[in-house]
Design brief:
The complex is a heterodimer. In chain A, 32% of the residues lie in helices and 25% in strands. Chain A is an alpha/beta fold. In chain A, the strands form 3 sheets. In chain A, strands 1-2-5-3-6-7 form a 6-stranded mixed beta sheet, with helices on both faces. In chain A, strands 10-9-8-13-11-12 form a 6-stranded mixed beta sheet. In chain B, helix 8 runs antiparallel to helix 9. The chains are: A alpha/beta, B mainly alpha. Chains A and B meet through strand 5, helix 2 and helix 3 of A and helix 2, helix 3, helix 4 and helix 5 of B.
């Protein structure tokens, strides 16, 4: 394992302390239990927005706390959901008296821990609503799986739902628009390499030099299918076709086209993916009215990327365009 | 061997669990790498090491007190599904540990824990989860109680059945938890949660044999 780390057990605390000092104008870092909240605390009268999940997905985590996005976040250990006390602390920090929305990515551990935290928050008379994000079209939603995962699209959902809370949406309307965002998008990704969790010391799965994993998640777990390496345009065909089939986009619709890098894939390769994905949507008569390319939701040093396509109506376009000021995503301010 | 089990047994159980989880950390991690995300060993080890710190120097009066400390510590340190599930199990079990436990009492305590796991995780038998180790263990425990066995013998029967249950998860295709994303590819691997369950019960049996 070759990494820029000291003791593997200290990786989380050292990186989070560094992050919090670098961005102290935007976030506050609390260690007992670990969570980040907006500098200055909850915005009174505004619906709070809280998310959380494992670490290793940076800038997801503290990087998306700030005006126009999350009020607080509970980051767990690498690829492990946070604990209920962390989520409760984040919920308290986000509560401006108007209730708090839990934006939860669909993984068993996250669901269980957020559920326990919501019970604890209810005991403190904090009104909590929960929306589960499950944009990964690679996983079939059936009784045979834990259901579609929450992947790259979750970042857009956090940003757009955060914008809604800034615009004064109450808790019920915030939950409604968050659900609408989730229903409007689909994501599918692939990995060229696995990644190594520092405390595990070895790659999270074994992948041959000429193999790729299709339908990869973001926690270092294998994908749904292992196939021989293909040219990038062929890979993009598979990813875009899967999302288009799931969302049933129609000619004349406006969409966000969003390529997310998993950590080790250069931006140049992500733009090659965008290039072909745009052509495919253009051929279908679908208008790409918003675009996003970059490492928004990573999986440590995994090489790979995903394609997210989101149907945009007037409301969602407005939420996407609203200003955001976080360490990981800043525009309009 | 004692006729009933109390705080001393519970403390020893948890210390032995912490030791075996630490010793088998790599094995649990490797099982999880194959079909999950490779953190089960590290997460459980972190949790039980934190439990040892909490219990160090403590003088709990009942098994229930010990298990409550275990529950709250695991819930706040493990994370993932296993933290919520083991934490819920120990919390539910702790409520039946106010007085010393005879053989039937031990099984009732563990049954309460498993009820918590099933309620929280919504898994049932055959879905390649820790429930596949707990369920045969409870059946074996009830059978041993009916046969008039001692608490230590009952726990030994449960530990044996749990280990067999863990091995029996190998051919199963997962339909719950992270392994379910793999579909057919999850077959051929043992479920890490079922294996850690077998270790937890083996530690309980060994502690009872020494009580």
């Amino acid at each position: 394992m070759k990494k820029l780390i000291n003791d593997p057990e200290d990786v989380l605390s050292e990186f989070m302390r560094g992050f919090s000092i670098a961005h102290k104008d935007i976030v506050e870092y609390k260690t007992d239990p670990v969570h980040f909240h907006r500098a200055g605390g909850a915005v009174q009268g505004k619906t709070g927005l809280v998310s959380g999940g494992g670490s290793g997905h940076e800038p997801l985590g503290g990087g998306y706390v700030g005006a126009g996005m999350l009020d607080a976040v509970a980051p767990g250990a690498f690829f492990s959901s946070p604990t209920p006390d962390q989520i409760l602390a984040a919920t308290e920090a986000a509560n401006g008296g108007a209730g708090v929305l839990h934006l939860v990515l669909n993984y068993t551990g996250d669901i269980l821990n957020f559920e326990m935290a919501a019970e604890l928050a209810a005991a403190e008379d904090i009104e909590v609503a929960t929306v589960v994000i499950d944009d990964d079209v690679a996983v079939e939603n059936s009784t045979w799986t834990a259901g579609r995962r929450g992947v790259a699209g979750a970042i857009a959902a956090m940003k757009m739902t955060g914008a809604a809370t800034d615009l004064g949406y109450d808790l019920a309307k915030t939950a409604e628009v968050c659900t609408k965002i989730n229903d409007s998008m689909g994501t599918m990704g692939l990995a060229l390499t696995a990644c190594t969790v520092p405390t595990a010391g070895k790659p999270s799965f074994d992948l041959g030099p000429d193999e790729i994993e299709l339908g990869i998640g973001v926690h270092g777990e294998p994908g749904v299918k292992r196939v021989p390496m293909m040219q990038v345009d062929e890979i993009v065909d598979v990813l875009v076709d899967a999302v288009v089939k799931d969302l049933k986009f129609e000619r004349g619709e406006n969409v966000l086209l969003y390529i997310n890098g998993l950590g080790a894939t250069p931006l140049s390769e992500q733009y090659i993916m965008y290039n072909h994905a745009w052509d495919k949507l253009d051929a279908l008569g679908v208008n790409v009215t918003r675009s996003q390319v970059g490492n928004y939701f990573t999986s440590l040093e995994m090489a790979g990327a995903s394609v997210t396509i989101m149907r945009l109506d007037e409301e969602l376009t407005k939420l996407y365009d609203a200003p955001v000021h976080t360490a990981g995503w800043r525009k309009g301010v | 061997m004692a006729d009933t089990l109390g705080a001393g047994w519970a403390l020893d159980w948890i210390k032995k669990t912490a030791a075996v989880v630490n010793a088998q950390r790599e094995e649990l991690t490797d099982l999880d790498r194959a079909i999950g995300d490779g953190d089960h060993g590290a997460n459980l080890d972190r949790g039980f090491q934190a439990v040892l710190v909490k219990l160090d120097g403590a003088t709990p009066a009942t098994a229930g007190e010990v298990l409550k400390t275990v529950a709250t510590t695991l819930i706040s340190t493990v994370g993932g599904a296993s933290g919520a599930l083991y934490g819920t199990a120990f919390l539910r079990a702790s409520k039946l540990g106010d007085s010393d436990l005879d053989a039937a009492g031990v099984v009732a305590l563990l049954q309460a824990g498993v009820d918590g796991i099933v309620q929280r995780g919504k898994a049932s038998v055959g879905e390649k989860t820790m429930v596949d180790a707990w369920t045969p263990a409870l059946a074996a425990g009830n059978e041993a109680v009916a046969a008039g066995k001692s608490p230590a013998e009952v726990l030994d029967a449960m530990a044996v059945a749990a280990q067999e249950g863990a091995v029996a998860t190998e051919p199963l295709v997962a339909t719950k938890g992270r392994a379910s994303y793999l579909g057919e590819r999850s077959a051929g691997h043992r479920d890490p949660g079922a294996q850690s369950t077998a270790y937890v019960l083996r530690a309980a049996a060994d502690a009872a044999a020494a009580a």
